[in-house]
User: Which sequence fits this backbone?
């Protein structure tokens, strides 16, 4: 005679519980993992924005230095021409 686990009281209860998990229950169980993934994604986005900002600041600083150099050369040239 074969043993039928569907008629067993102990397994019937566990099968019944597995079938009755609602989507909300499963989502609540996965919430800490989802929050961790969201936090990691947010950190990545912030890091990328920071890299872009630093790059823009370097560009502005370089242009400022170049502008200062050009203006100082123009002033020297003007002084030479005015003498």
Assistant:
């Amino acid at each position: 005679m074969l043993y039928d686990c569907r008629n067993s009281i102990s397994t019937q209860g566990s099968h019944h519980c597995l079938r009755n998990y609602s989507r909300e229950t499963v989502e609540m169980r996965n919430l800490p993992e989802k929050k961790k993934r969201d936090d990691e994604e947010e950190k990545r986005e912030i890091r990328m924005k920071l890299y872009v900002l630093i790059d823009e600041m370097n560009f502005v600083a370089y242009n400022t230095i170049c502008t200062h150099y050009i203006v100082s050369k123009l002033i020297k040239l003007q002084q030479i021409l005015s003498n």
